Amino acid sequence: MSDNALQHAAELIHAALANEQLKPIVRSFFDPATFTISHVVRDPGSKACAIVDSVLDYDPASGRTMTDSARALIDYIKTENLEVQWLLETHAHADHLSAAPLLQAELGGQLAIGHEIIRVQEVFGKIFNAGTEFQRDGSQFDQLFEDGDRFRIGNLEATVLHVPGHTPACLAYVVGDVIFPGDTLFMPDYGTARCDFPGGDARTLYRSIQRLMQLPGEARMFLCHDYKAPGRDVYAWETTVEAERTGNIHVRNGISEDDFVQMRTERDRTLSMPKLILPSVQVNMRAGKLPPAEENGVQYLKIPVNAL
């Protein structure tokens, strides 16, 4: 991973801290069914915005999808008369389905994810026996970002940091003084992401987090999930690099890599699989699209038995 990428991210943060016009406005939407937070990040000097980690509601008992969460985003964006330039995925989520195709159809924008999604597609394409029709080259997405890539949201410059460990494809997006780290980090009182999914690795996650911890302490972090740590009465998803650096229960200053790996590995052994992992991954590896309909016109999601 490039030190130049980290340096550029730090420069963006410092510039925004010195200039209010470079500080993005963030509006967050919490989905209580999956404990997911989607974010609309907008340029204060224009109507340009991006959507980070959207949610398509899904009922596993009936197999029905619903659009309430996505509609909340759509209503906000239309009310504010915003222009969606990007639909950003931090990774192929295992706990909720992405609403990116619906949002793109109604609002436009380019759909982006990390280049290493091709590794996720290869692994899970085999698990779901997706067949030759399923391309494992990331072509379902408009943009595959690599570490250090840059893009714009209106007048705001943004950059990408590759932060694998939870999955091979995890990205953190840095927009002005704001970081969207996906599932890499949770609130300081809750800790860090699990690493026991295919392609996950606790040692890699520790190193990715240490990379983020080098960014300016004042930088704002908007997280993808919150599960309300014991003793906390409200859900929360905004923190800072400094708060994570000094207070994260799993990875704060002074916790060694070996200690983290031992803790994370032991903790992951106690965790159940997310209840929506099977529908989520086989949809999200397709950029939020359901598998193609079969001869009877019905779309099916597969449940591989004893595969995970």
Descriptive notes:
The protein has 308 residues and is α/β, with parallel strands linked by helices. The chain has a single domain, classed as Ribonuclease Z/Hydroxyacylglutathione hydrolase-like (Metallo-beta-lactamase, Chain A, 4-Layer Sandwich), CATH 3.60.15. Helix content is 28%, strand content 21%. It contains eight helices and 14 strands. Strands 1-2-3-6-7-8 form a six-stranded mixed beta sheet, covered by helices on one side. The chain has a six-stranded mixed beta sheet with strand order 9-10-11-12-13-14. A two-stranded antiparallel sheet has the order 4-5. Helix 2 runs parallel beside helix 3. The radius of gyration is 19 Å and the shape is globular.
Question: What are the key terms here?
Answer:
8 helices; six-stranded mixed β-sheet; Metallo-beta-lactamase, Chain A; 14 strands; alpha/beta
CATH uppermost class:
Alpha Beta
Model regions low in confidence, pLDDT < 50 over at least 5 residues: none
Which structural class best describes the helix and strand composition?
A: alpha/beta
The CATH superfamily name is Ribonuclease Z/Hydroxyacylglutathione hydrolase-like
Q: What can be said about the biggest beta sheet?
A: 6 strands, mixed
- How large is the share of residues in beta strands? 15-25%
Distance separating the two termini: 30 Å
According to CATH, the fold-level topology is: Metallo-beta-lactamase, Chain A
Quickly give the CATH architecture: 4-Layer Sandwich
- How many runs of DSSP E, i.e. beta strands? 14
N-to-C order of helices and strands:
HEEEEEHEHEHEEEEEHEEHHH
Using the alpha-carbon principal axes, give the shape.
globular
